[in-house]
Amino acid sequence: MSTWNVRLVAFDERTEIVRALRELTGKGLRECVALAEGAPGPVLVGASRAEAEEARRRLEAAGGWVELEEAGPAVARNGVFDVWLHHVGPRKIAVIKLVREATGLGLKDSTELVESAPRLLQGGVEVEHAQQLCSRLEAAGARAELVLVGERRVCLQPDHPERGDQPVVRLMRAGSAVWQQVSPLGRQGPAEKQDLGDDDAAVAELERRLEERRRSGWLVVEDELEALAAVSPRNRSLERALLGYVDDPDNPERRKTLHVYADWLQERGDPRGELMALQLGLSGNAELAEAGLTLLERHRGHLLGELSRLADEIELGWRLGFIEGIRLRQLPRSGGPMGRSMVDLVNVLRDLHALPAALLLRRIQIDRGVDAFISALRRVGAPPALRHLVLGPFDDDEDEGEFLGDIHPLYRAAPGLETLSIKGRWLDLSRPNLPGLRAFSCKASPTHRGLMRQIRRARWPRLQRLALWFTSRDGAWDEDEEVEDRYRAVEIDDLRPLWAGQVELPELRHLRLSSTAFTDALVRELAESRLAPRLESLDLSRGTLTDAGARVLAEHRERLPGLRQLDLRGNALTDAGRATLAVFGDALRL
Question: Which of 20, 263, 304, 563 has its CA 20 to 30 A from that of 174?
């Protein structure tokens, strides 16, 4: 079967064609504008014939003139590839960004890599990752090539008593060599190499070894995910029932269903059943907790598959036998010549989708590689139970995070979010559209007027908690230098619509405005606003509140009847000012 490239030759109206490109590719506004302005040029590469025809139909409906080009035969789905970058093209910055996503390198290293083309970009990667990377590079105007260097298979015994913890045999042909590694899922082992001196001889040797395993009753599959699936019993009916309780975790029927599933798994000898039973019976029992930890370590291959390779990069939170939360502190490293490539976060997300133990994953935190994560989320989709997302090192005061840019593709990729926390530099929210969001926290550097406009335009009808930290441009521009208005520091006029009824936030009850430069003026307006009677908590910490502002708050105590917490820590108050605030009683935090 052949693959096809879609070329946009010309168009009538830029707005319509950019809108069509965004819907078609899932890329951001700037990327699609660049694609349109690059006409004539490719906008989609490596597509199936049906995908290419659909793209042509949609682009022509938007006023585009489109050509389809046959790109050549489709690549075997079980191959191992090198990705070569031959020519950067006119959009070097876009190519550097893609290379950073794919490799996890920093800006300097990615720039040097791109500028040294032609050169090997990534070696020994799986077909889907290789195809995606090559397609995106070509869509950005670069010239890239996939070079088939071999193929991989994974062999296991389907009836082995250790299930996913059994030693599996990984076989790979790379050129004229055949590699073999024997180790449990998620663990590295020594790799033995046999060089046959000839590619055809290596192909024959690989097939001989595979056939030998098949004759001995072994199961031969394409990758580790298939291997784990083959030895992991699943009750889809019970899993659907558990997913139905994701937004109702206190429903007593949920716990009953968990007990039933634990029994069902234990009857089939799956260690997940034992883990569920242990954690369902914890209730402060230290011995059961210790037994659970021991079981997690003993069966980590069966429970986590290839994710267990990432012990240094991830933290997992377990609850009632399932992974409830995961924190990825840095971009995962490669699995080596015999392991699945985990550099691309697409593979991490695919593992989370496929792992039975990750069915009820509710929370993800990504400290590094936020842009790559959003891209992966857009391609793979969000785990079905995902409700809470943290982007950036939110709890690290010493780390301001990485450059974020436009994150709008997140909204369509994870529409079920209830809480979203973001920390990073030069954040672009576009127009947030998360109708189910209950809490939004933002530590953006700098916090500028343009960002506040985006927050005011957000569609958050169910938002109950809004927390914003305000940071300056830290000397990025001279005071005398002309600065575009949207990038100027936030003033009280930019915040006023939040409490003046000009922003639709009917359920807002908790407000944090930290490190403001105008706290005295803010408290007067806020205390007299229509929002004040609804507030249950107010955090104005690390601001510029003086004794005069404290008197205003005290004078308006009756305007805040539901306030249960008032956090004013880090403000420049005297003892007299603190005494004035005594009217707030136990609600006060100083």
Answer: 304
pLDDT means over runs of 10, the chain (590 residues) = 71 84 73 72 71 84 81 51 82 86 75 83 71 79 75 87 89 84 85 88 91 93 87 93 92 94 94 91 71 87 86 87 90 50 67 93 92 81 94 90 87 94 92 94 92 92 96 52 68 92 92 95 94 96 95 94 96 93 94
Beta strands in 127-252 (DSSP E): 143-156, 167-174, 177-184, 191-195, 219-221
Q: In this structure, are residues 101 and 54 in contact, taking their beta carbons and an 8 Å threshold?
A: no
Asked if 395 contacts 365 with a C-beta cutoff of 8 angstroms, the reply is no
DSSP string, 489-513: BP-HHHHHHHHTT-S--TT--EEEE
Distances (CA, A) of 1 to 6, 81, 212, 403: 17, 19, 30, 40
Residue 201's DSSP bridge partners are none
* 68-83: pLDDT as tens digits: 876 544 444 456 677 8
CA distance linking residue 379 with residue 377, whole number of Å? 5
CB atoms within 10 A of CB 545: 24
Q: Where are the domains of the chain?
A: 2-76+88-144, 149-230, 232-386
Joined tokens for residue 497? 């619509």
List the structure tokens of 143. 């010239």
Whether the ω angle into residue 446 lies within 30 degrees of 0, i.e. cis, is: yes
Q: Specify the pTM.
A: 0.77
Do 491 and 518 form a contact (C-beta atoms < 8 A)?
A: yes
Q: What are the pLDDT digits (tens) for 545-557?
A: 999 999 999 999 9
Q: What SS3 state is found at 427? A: strand
Burial class, 580, CB count within 10 angstroms (exposed 0-12 / middle 13-18 / buried 19+) = buried
CA distance 519 to 416: 34
Give dist(CA 31, CA 22) in Å, integer.
9
3-state helix, strand, coil in the chain (%, to 5): 40, 25, 35
Helix (H) or strand (E) holding 386, with range, is none
Q: State the fold for domain 2-76+88-144.
A: Ribosomal Protein L30; Chain: A, (3.30.1390)
d(CA 35, CA 40): 9
Picking from 559, 574, 567, the residue whose alpha carbon sits closest to that of residue 543 is 567
Measuring CA to CA, which residue among 100, 122, 85, 98 is closest to residue 31? 98
CB-side exposure of 9: number of CA atoms within 13 Å? 7
CATH fold, domain 149-230, is q64v53_bacfr protein fold (2.20.140)
Read out DSSP for 146-161? EEEEEEEEEEE-TT-T
Beta pairing partners, 151: 79, 173
DSSP track, 99-139 = HHHHH---HHHHHHHHHT-SEEEEEEEEHHHHHHHHHHHHH
Structure tokens at 219: 């199961």
